[in-house]
Amino acid sequence: MLRCAVLAVLATPLAAGALSAQPMQLSDPTPRWVSVSFEISPRDLPGQTRTHFSRSFPAWLEPGAADHTARVTVDGRVVERHLLFDDDPVPESFSHFVWVFDTRTGHVRSASVAGTVRKPVDWGFFRTEVETDITIEMNTESPAGFRRSQRILGHELFRFCDSPGDDRCTLVEPARYDPGTGYVNAVGEVEIQTGFVTTHSFSPLGEAVFSELGAEQDFAQSARSAQEPAAKASAALPSVSSRGTP
Length: 246
Description:
The protein is mainly beta. The chain has one domain (2-239). It has helices spanning 2-10, 76-83, 219-225, and strands at 12-13, 32-38, 52-53, 57-63, 69-74, 97-102, 108-122, 127-139, 145-146, 150-152, 155-157, 160-161, 170-171, 183-194, 197-212, 239-240.
């Protein structure tokens, strides 16, 4: 119930909130602070899109290493303290959440982040808590989806799939960056390394709205807000059955 309440406080309907600011201008290569809001639908609805978005967090835009690219970086602490708060991340273990955009097409060439979380694991004959390494990779150029939820090591997991011809695979439509709204939906997978077991789940963390920081916005205040604890009902990692679902 608490997680549902926090989600309700953080989320705003897409039409009324996240799209009201001026969209981030990828065509402007000037290094600067921008802001980003993430879609935060409940973890048991990995295919739900364009519904509820978080409040804004600061991100740094700069030219990418390759021609015609822009790199947008979200502090790893935002991932730990907001996007994956429910999954008990190991403090300071997460890399920055780095997005690389093609400035000509709006495609996300890559959106990636990695870190470590603590997860209870059910081995059948005993339960324990282990540190689990996760690597998230997404883009808007390749198909990605999920299969029906499956229990693995005591967790409900939506396994990653990417075959358009597989009837068991529910594909989630990617969306390149829209310069008119700031909306983008990069899709991909989470590699989860638990002991000697490696699994792959669908990642919904690539759905976001990027905006310019208005002249009236104080970045120092935005940066401080990024450190405040908050929860996200994330579908990127398997949920623990003992916690239930929203």
